[in-house]
Amino acid sequence: MLNRSQSKFLSLTATYALLATGLIFIIFPYIWMVLASLKPSAEIYNRLIPTRITLEHYRMVFSLGSTGSTSPFVRAIFNSLVVSSITTLSVVFFGAITGYALARLRFKGQNLLKNFILFQMLFPIVLFLIPRFLLMIRLGWINTYQGMFSPFMMSAWGTFLFMQFFKTVPQSLIDAARLDGCSELRIVFRIMLPLSKSVTIIVAIFTFMSMWDEFLWYLIVTKDYNLMPLSVLLGLYTRGEYSSYPGIQVAGATLLTLPILALFYFFREYFTKGITMTGVKG
Amino acid sequence: MVIPYILFTIIFWVYPLIWGILIAFKKWNIISPVTEFVGLDNFIKILHDPLFWISFKNTLIFMVVFVPLSIICSLMVALLLNRIKLLRSFFSLGYLMSYVSAGVAYSIVFRLLFSGDGLINSWLGKVGITIPWFSSPKLAMVSIAFIVVWKFLGYYSLIFLAGLQSIPSTIYESAEIAGASKWMIFRRITVPLLNPSFTIILIFAVILSFNIFTEPYMITGGGPLDSTQTFMMQIYYQTFTALHAGYGSSFAITVAIISFTFVFIVKKTIEKDMIYS
Amino acid sequence: MINGSHGISMLSRLGINFIAITLGTTVMSCDSRQARDGSQNIVYWTAPSVELSRFEKKVVEEWNSSHPEARITWNTIPAGVTSEEVILTAIATRTGPDISSNIFGGFAAQLADAGVIVALDTLPGFWDLMETRNMANIIRDNWFYKGHVYIIPVYVNPQLMWYNQSILDKHGITELPRTYSEFFTLLDKVYIPQKVYGLTVDISSKWFRRWFDYLTLYAAASGGEPYLDVNESEAFFDNKAGLAVTEFIAQIFKKGYAPRFEIQDGFKKGIFLASIKGAGDIVRTGRMYPDLEYVIAPLLVPDYYPMDAPVTTLAESKGIALFNTSQNKEKAWDFIKWYFSDRHDSLWLEITNYLPAREDLTTNPIFIEYFSDNPNMGIYAAAFEQSVPLVMTSQTVEVQTLLNRELWQPIIFGLKSPLKASRDANTAIERILKSGP
To answer: Is B147 helix (H, G, I), strand (E, B) or coil?
Structure first.
């Protein structure tokens, strides 16, 4: 018979072994992706470990440009950065001020607006795709940056998160600031935001990630290679021009993944915090 | 301070919502300046559209695979994570890695990895099997459900883990003293107390099932034999390829109503379950 | 109470922020279109192919250096979505080009119905151009739609069979199969499960792929009879030829001569005995798989097909259209007239390996030398004379989508008998032809 500590040790070992096995399944596609982007085309389909390392796919990715001079991938990375950053800044900025007003100010229709924000989150995105596209046509914003980011500039979810957190800030701090003659806007950015570092970072990283990852909306509003964010450009190249160049596809997939992985690495604790706070977008 | 938010919501939320409902009763090809009021014709046409029913069936197949599989796997991972102290954050972050992969990127990776002549099949080939993951009409939607499980496993595990940690340990202790078996504890204490986590994950999973687009668009294009056509693929095709804006819009509204109904059913069922327990 | 004076100043500041962000990005994103509004630029879109782009790049540079008053802004159409989708969205959103190539007849018909492209035969010098490029008969036979010509075809793309030379050599085969039965007899010898397959068959449900398999084989099996009669709203997919082709494809899959999954570049990698390909594949294969050896032969025909009759094929074709929205139609038309010249056609042939849409490919001295230096290309030029064009209908996409759904995919997965598949497809297609676009 095993004694108590022995059996505890065994079950703990089994726990770690199971977790490690599961983790291999999670990580394997990443390992394959990075290796595939570095190996000769012929080995992508049937070998895991490359016989030699080559940068030819990345060279292709960075030199391609059938009509112009700059690589469309470089432009696409730039476009992704522009669109994702503007949205992130905007969601944080407007989320913070709206959240502050809802949590700490008193005005007519406040409760109505609070409830409305919760109500908004119930509506599936599918209802908005077509009319927003028609709106973009009317505004002449097809094939523009603002066409890509404008519908996402303010988020009910971000606003709600800020509102919840701002409720916990002590009233004395706000009163003191008002006595010093601070404007409300100043209070938001000088007092509330610095006190809510983690909420701000959570709203920012999840917004940035969802914009970087967005595919369908960009596909609808941009048909111009020069303005496409990386996700759509890569998607269309994979289906079209480079459908028989798996090397380029995987290299592109790696480029699309790495920035978010880096973000994940640097802000890892905020990712877990954001998810356990739940209500985070799925 | 709330004026920008209200303005924004009117322009990009309320106005489109109403516009979308209005054009659902019209026939309009976007190019032409003329729209024609057709009443409920678009909605009637949906009921006779074989692809609506095919998409419905495929969505159900996806749900039947995705929902239980992702919940069982992530609950298992969460239970395992809850048992360890050392390296817990290492493992939970490791499992979360798949969640941050972009839809287009992991679709490319899995399409190549699981293709008929891809690495997985060339390994399986050594023992004489080939699995047509994405090219068999019976398997394609199931494979797509698998890869979406891959993506969300870590995410759901974390929600469960947070739920597990909020259960006070005193409850377990008193149950153990009362002589309850491990299974009894799990069934009678852990599961009911995890109810909020279950609810959230189920709602996320159901909403997600109705929004599947990138994976079939990138991997299978809706084929083989329309076995991976989804509602989103149809709405995209009708509106942006065939330019039937009115029909697409009524399709979208129908899908929204169906997904609302599903979410509602899930909520009601789980609440009942809690009372029973 | 709190929303006093503070509130107002804050609001105005916020408003300014909002406007600044929006304006800032408007300016940033305008750079690609700005030139259009001011000067007399012409926006020109072409197919997203590497080879075609090499040609277009040369030609556009040449034009721009000699025509500073009407510079061409050239872009390729994104390929991941169909050209049709991109162009339709562009028209709907008023971001379309002045000129676009890569437009097939059926799509032109749709565009003409919507009134967005110019009837080119109404422009000065149209028929002169047709005569000098030796394409007047091609135009008369196939490019009239409701009494006008909306497209000038750039290339024609007849399809032929390719056989892998090294597989043939390994089995000492010198005589190529002519009929389906002969092909199957040959495959009995050659086929190795999972290693060497028979014929590359596209299993995707992309509607345009049917030009290159089913409809091509149909053209051969029927001796060049059309597959639709648009005026009578009739389809002929369940006749003798249609049934023979459907039966042939069904047999291929039943016997495992083609896999039910996609193998990228399967023929070029040497795991397929045969494949149906166009001339454009010659340059692509040469670049990516320089070691591959192959022979080009006429299409396979059903067993009933007479021995001595020539074998017909289908020649898909795409061309240039001029959009009504163009602000600069005269210059754009000048560009089109300048684009079609003997010199450009020779260059086109050399770079892209697609055949220019002309009647004098095998007789004009400017091409003769090229074809004798490139005998494989010569085979295609000769095949063009035995080819039939696509049926012109604005319902092409719907027809071929139904062909996929009712016939092609069910046959591949063995869900319908060839007879049922052919009849279902025929009924469904006739129904939408009758109901109109």
So the answer is: helix
Asked if B242 and C395 touch (Cβ cutoff 8 Å), the reply is no
pLDDT tens across B98-130, in order?
999 999 999 999 999 998 888 998 898 888 888
User: Over the Cα atoms of chain B, what is R_g?
Assistant: 23
Q: What angle do CA C384, C390, C394 make, to 5 degrees?
A: 155
A–C CB contacts, 8 A cutoff, strictly below: 102
Residue spans in chain C of domains classed CATH 3.40.190.10: 37-156+315-388, 158-314+392-435
- The residues, any chain, with a CB within 8 Å of residue A232's CB and separated by 6 or more, are A76, A215, A218, A219, A222, B104
pLDDT tens readout for residues C342-370? 999 999 999 999 999 999 999 999 999 99
Instruction: Provide the chain C residues 289-348 that lie in CB contact (below 8 A) with chain A.
Output: none
- Measure the CA angle with vertex C287, ends C285 and C288; round to 5°: 70
**Strands C144-145 and C234-235, bridge-based pairing:** unpaired
Is the separation of the CB atoms in B206 and B37 below 8 Å? no
**Antiparallel, parallel or unpaired: β C152-164 and C272-278:** antiparallel
Neighbours of chain A (3+ CB pairs under 8 A): B, C
pLDDT at B29 over 60: yes
Burial class (CB in 10 A: 0-12, 13-18, 19+), A236: buried
The CATH code of the domain at C37-156+315-388 is 3.40.190.10
Nearest chain C residue to B112 by CA distance is: C264
Residue boundaries of the structural domains of chain A: 1-54, 67-276
Alpha carbons C284 and C278: distance in angstroms, whole number? 11
Average of per-residue pLDDT values in chain C: 87
Strand partners, C274: C163, C199
**Residues C221, C300: Cα–Cα separation, whole Å:** 8
ipTM score of complex: 0.92
pLDDT of residue A69: 57
Residue A112 has pLDDT above 90, yes or no: yes
CB–CB of A126/B211 below 8 Å? yes
CB-based contacts of B192: which residues, under 8 Å, 6+ apart?
A: B274, B277
Question: What is the CATH code of the structural domain delimited by A67-276?
Answer: 1.10.3720.10
Q: Which of C419, C420, C425, C418 is nearest to C251 (CA)?
A: C418
* Structural contact between residues C354 and C374, judged by C-beta atoms closer than 8 angstroms: no
Minimum CA–CA partner of C5 in chain A: A183
What DSSP string runs through C321-347?
EEBTT-S-HHHHHHHHHHHS-HHHHHH
| pLDDT tens track for C149-194 | 999 999 999 999 999 999 999 999 999 999 999 999 999 999 998 8
Choice between C22 and C196, residue whose per-residue pLDDT is larger: C196
Contact B55, B227 (CB under 8 A): no
Instruction: Return the structure tokens found at B210.
Output: 């109705």
- Smallest Cα–Cα separation from B100: which of B160, B147, B152? B152
Q: What angle (nearest 5°) sits at the alpha carbon of residue A114, between those of residues A111 and A120?
A: 135
Where do the domains of chain B lie, and which CATH numbers do they carry? 3-276 (1.10.3720.10)
- Interface contact flag, B226 C409, Cβ < 8 Å: yes
How far apart (Å, rounded) are the C-alpha atoms in residues C437 and C432? 8
Give CA–CA dist B102/A212, Å, rounded.
8
Q: Does domain C158-314+392-435 have CATH number 3.90.79.10?
A: no
| Block residue for tokens 């995919």 | C409
- Nearest beta carbon to residue C32 from set A107, A150, A226: A226
* CA distance, residue A151 to nearest chain C CA (Å): 12
pLDDT band at C38 (very low <50, low <70, confident <90, very high): very low
For residue C402, give the nearest of C435, C377, C371, C380 by alpha carbon: C435
8 A C-beta contact, residue B93 and residue A261: no
